[in-house]
Design goal:
Helices cover 64% and strands 0% of the residues. The protein has five helices and no strands.
């Protein structure tokens, strides 16, 4: 009979990298699930007008900043049955506030020189992410910006 505390020479040692790989795979899967934008579950049926208003909030915010989503949110926030529009206009507004903050930071960093690069990256990211959000909203899918501060709740 063998002692369980003694190492067994016939038994293969566990591969430590296998556990690390499994943990990384689980973390990657969790991140993918978190980054996917699920269909909006607030109301069962989203009208085409609501999809268009949400898409308009995202598209206009790419060109005119935080004012279009703010106006659209103020117009639709208290209306019954406009949960999707309310959600997406708040999301666009929150992202545009984040963009304004990032532009201020990049302007401050222009003294050092890196602000010029950051300024360009912020505007390109703003444009691309707003278009992706507009496409998702036109399909009736709630989009969540990846780098957005959720200030307006």
């Amino acid at each position: 009979m063998t002692d369980p505390n003694q190492p067994n020479p016939n038994k293969q040692p566990k591969n430590p990298s296998n556990g690390v790989q499994e943990t990384l795979h689980q973390a990657e899967q969790t991140l993918r699930e978190a980054m996917q934008s699920p269909s909006y579950t607030g109301s069962g049926n989203i009208s085409q007008d609501d999809k268009n208003v949400a898409m308009l909030a995202h598209v206009l915010s790419a060109f005119f900043g935080f004012l279009p989503p703010l106006v659209l949110w103020l117009l639709h926030k208290d209306k019954a049955g406009k949960d999707f529009v309310n959600d997406q206009t708040k999301e666009a507004l929150n992202f545009q506030i984040t963009v304004v903050l990032a532009v201020f930071v990049s302007c401050a960093l222009m003294i050092v020189g890196i602000g010029f690069l950051l300024f360009g990256l912020v505007w390109v990211a703003n444009f691309v992410l707003c278009l992706v959000a507009a496409l998702a909203a036109s399909k009736g899918t709630a989009y969540r910006y990846p780098f957005s501060l959720r200030l307006v709740k």
